[in-house]
Amino acid sequence: MSLDPDTFRSVLGRFASGVTVITARDEAGRDYGMTVSAFCSVSLVPPLVLICVDHVASSHDALLAIPYFAVNVLAAHQESISRRFSGLDEHVRFDGVGYSRGLTGSALLDDALAHIECRRVAEHLAGDHTIVVGEVEAAVAHSDRPLLYYRGGYAQLER
């Protein structure tokens, strides 16, 4: 029995997820970044996280070639950052966006709820995505509310 993709998307849309921007910097100094909502922890010991990257994403190949990446967990007020990094024009994603460099060289976006710096340790093909596993080398959390994605739109947690 095959599940209709539209039904599957609708059902999965009922699962609220946080919103992240994954950033990486190649050896030539070029920055890459993309919005990713498929992110989760894998293990506490060693500290591992995973992200899922669509094969057709413009940054897919770069993220698999660069050994380090950062996960920027977006705060409630950063919807515009999420939209910018999910846009089609990858050449303007960092224009006017404040960031600092992390220990791995990846961009750490200003005012993000958390920063997680990782070394890529594995990747696995899974359907139309690649699962990228990263070992966490540095992490910091800030106080704010998260930006959420729910049923095809952005939402905020009131707490």
Describe this structure in words.
The structure is a single chain. The protein has helices spanning 5-12, 60-65, 79-86; strands spanning 17-18, 20-25, 31-36, 39-43, 48-54, 68-73, 99-101, 107-109, 114-126, 129-141, 147-150, 153-156. It is mostly beta strands. It has a single domain (5-156), classed as Electron Transport, Fmn-binding Protein, Chain A (Pnp Oxidase, Chain A), CATH 2.30.110. The strands form three sheets. The chain has a seven-stranded antiparallel sheet. The relative contact order is 0.23.
* Separation of the first and last Cα atoms: 42 Å
CATH class: Mainly Beta
Tally of separate helices: 3
Protein structure class? mainly beta
Concise summary:
This protein has 159 residues and is mainly beta. It is built from 3 helices and 12 strands; from the N terminus they run H-E-E-E-E-E-H-E-H-E-E-E-E-E-E.
